[in-house]
Amino acid sequence: MIGLLLCLPAALILGLGFVWPVLLLARISFNRTTDMGAMEQAWTLDTYAKIVTDDFTWDLAWNTVTLSAGCAAAAVALALPVTLLIRSADPRWRGLLALLAVAPLLVSGTARVVGWMAILGDQGMINALLTGLGIASDPVRLINNLTGVRIGLTESLMPYCCLVLIAGLSRLDSRLEEAAATLGATRSRTFLRVTLPLAAPALLAAFLLAFVLGVSAFVTPRLMGGGRVFVVATEIFDMALETVDWPAAAALAMLLLGALVLAMVLRGVTAGREAPR
Amino acid sequence: MKPGWFLRLAAFCGYSLLLAPALLVLVISFSAGDFLNFPPPGFSLRWYAALIDNGQLMAALRNSALLALGVAAIALAAGLPAAYAIARLDFPGRGALAGFLAAPLLLPTLVLGLALLLALQPMRLAATWPGLMLAHAMVAVPFAVRIMTTAFGGVPKDLEEAAWTLGATRFRAALRVTLPLAAPGAIAAGALCFLVSFDETVISLFLVGPRLSTLPVEMFRYAENRTDPLVAALAMTLIGVALAVVLLVERLVGFRRAVGRN
């Protein structure tokens, strides 16, 4: 009994700041928006119907899914060599290397976008290099478009992938790779036939985490896209604060939540299948 | 096995991508130029001076610092007893409660921000201190509970039982024996809650107003509309605060002890 009492303050904060708002969000998604743009109390699926039958929603969903899947895959592919290097590094350097790999988590997303502006902008580092070397005469547009969002999102997902892979690969027995090398396998063959299959569950877990985070990312798509790249998250934000259509924002947010729950269930199913091994 | 050249090269690419943005922010914040161009035409402290002269941004910095301090205090005060109960006591629904207290971390901050806007706006609590405190405390509490549960779990139960045997009440034993031993965890939890609130952008974007705004929100808006090195100086301020807090924790308790592992 005393245990419940001790948890009461924390539960109260979550009740007021989490449960109640999320329930209200679900409730408001069943309200109706009048032609004047005002919200009308109702129990209707009109808002959902409007969203689901709108082709723009499906474009958004497709953009969001392909963008996050691509960036998640790239993030995993780049995080893997980083993690493998950490794993094979001298123990003296291992801690520092691991810290550097996850340090970006301490830097707010907006601050990192500012850094990307200085790298990818028309007068940024890469364009200065390209024009300086005479490769390009005009600046290449690398930001305020989908390219910028792809680069920024990949980078912002990488530290999470590193976290998952560092944990996942630490349990991987390096003697198996040494045995393969002793038996005459080349480096690439050892990697493809031994390391990669052993790392597959961790790679999948990292990909799914990055995908889920990418689907709901807002700051990077908004800022790196310069307001020209539209994903589900930016659309929810605009519906809530620009057009102030609360039922639509709530319904789209509920659909996003539903999709994320589905992704997590799928992750649970795949993880469950691998557990017995 | 020694890493081959290909692995080294690929890892170098990965690290460059991870670290380049923060390094560029550092360099550009000292730029003497008017734009976010690289290489900068010269170096100066003019944008840090401009930052200090900017009343709106300084007010936002003060708000963010106060908010983060308040949130860290609230999250610790609420999270500490809950974590003690979860780590030490056996009661019906303990597992479910532990899951519930971690639940906000499962939802995207965008959805949480929207939900809080819909809940707080009609009550005129959006863009107020209580509203922002509640919103940030809600995201910070799960971190406080998680870290403190580990910290309490790391304190040997025998010590508390010895105190009981010596006649201490349960409350006194928890307060005088277990809590001081878990203090490094509490410091780390407080620091993390401070940073979670200080860096929180998306939820705040839904909840701020013209009269009450936070530093990350002001930085977001600035980056959305203008591109001069002032925003880099601003970003460095946030990075600097995060680094200072991390180094403080490291000096006070050390990371290993703070996280409760040896």
Explain this structure to me?
The complex is a heterodimer of chains A (277) and B (262). In chain A, 75% of the residues lie in helices and 1% in strands. The longest helix of chain A is centred in the N-terminal third of the chain and has 34 residues. In chain A, helix 3 packs across helix 9. Chain A has a two-stranded antiparallel sheet. Chain A has 277 residues and is an all-alpha fold. Chain A has one domain: Orthogonal Bundle (MetI-like fold), CATH 1.10.3720.10. Chain A starts with a helix and ends with a helix. By secondary structure, chain B is mostly helical. In chain B, helix 3 packs antiparallel against helix 9, helix 6 packs antiparallel against helix 9 and helix 9 packs antiparallel against helix 12. Chain B is globular and about 70 Å long. The model of chain B has no long low-confidence stretch (mean pLDDT 91). The interface between A and B is large, with 81 and 88 residues. Chain B: Belongs to the binding-protein-dependent transport system permease family. Chain B: Its main location: membrane.
State the end-to-end CA separation of chain A.
40 Å
**CATH-scheme architecture of chain B:** Orthogonal Bundle
* Total of helices of chain B: 13
- The CATH topology assignment of chain B is MetI-like fold
Output the CATH class name of chain B.
Mainly Alpha
Helix content of chain B: over 70%
Rg measurement of chain B, Å: 22 Å
Overall pLDDT level of chain B: 91
Using the alpha-carbon principal axes, give the shape of chain A.
globular
**What percentage of amino acids of chain A are in beta strands?**
under 5%
Q: Output the radius of gyration of chain A.
A: 23 Å
Q: Low-confidence stretches of chain A at least 5 residues in length (pLDDT < 50)?
A: none
How many strands in all of chain A?
2
Q: So what's the CATH class of chain A?
A: Mainly Alpha
Query: Any idea how many domains of chain A?
Result: 1
The CA-CA distance between the termini of chain B, in Å, is 27 Å
Order of helices and strands of chain A: HEEHHHHHHHHHHH
Oligomeric state:
heterodimer
User: Mind telling me the CATH superfamily name of chain B?
Assistant: MetI-like
Question: Which sequence of SSEs, written as H and E, runs from N to C of chain B?
Answer: HHHHHHHHHHHHH
Largest interface: A-B, 81 and 88 residues
Membrane topology (chain B): Multi-pass membrane protein
Pfam families (chain B): BPD_transp_1
Keywords (chain B): Cell inner membrane, Cell membrane, Membrane, Transmembrane, Transmembrane helix, Transport
InterPro entries (chain B): MetI-like
